Amino acid sequence: ENTQRDINIALINELAIIFKLLDLDTLDVLEAASTKWNFLKFKPGLVGGHCIGVDPYYLTYKAQSIGYSPEVVLAGRKINDDMSKWLANQIILEMRKRNTILSNAKVLILGFTFKENCPDIRNTKVYDVIKILKEKKIKIDITDPHVNPKEVQEVYGLNISNSLINNIKYDAVVCMVAHKLFTKLGKSTWENLIDEKGIIFDLKGIVPRELNPLRI
Known about the structure:
Blueprint: H1 2-21, H2 26-33, H3 55-65, H4 72-97, E1 106-110, H5 126-135, E2 139-143, H6 149-156, E3 170-175, H7 180-183, H8 187-193, E4 194-202, E5 214-215
Parallel strand pairs: 1-2, 1-3, 3-4, 4-5
Helix pairs in contact: 1-4, 4-5
């Protein structure tokens, strides 16, 4: 089941990359496709954790040990593993379009766990996105209401807050994980998080559309 889910998400992630090039909103396309009664409702995103991102490699190892090299399974893994880099590059590209000097930029990451409403940070791909942004000297703040900040510091070497920091304007806010707390944020709260040229990246489709968030 984990391998099947991994491949299904990989397909949607590949579609998201194609739709981005076509200037189409992936979540809008998926909503339209969902009007067909038997459409499988998967969404694009980062695939981490201790099961979906790992179990396909166990299956691959076993298959190779008996002389068979899986193709679809590994293709799905490659697409999903590469999504962190693709997403980070999209953030960087949009900031450069707005003439933001990356070394002076401040970015807020909302959510660090590998899935919503849980404290599990094992194999979270949010870390991979943060790592790439940090390589560009971008200053990163991270907020996640569910994690243990001490654990994040010990495992990933990152400082993290359990609540939003007041009175800071960001060049970009990236909603990585659809925690309930984030889904309940009002329009004014989102507006107060960004400066005049600020961008909201909505990976999960939870930001009010009137704010014109960038979605995948």
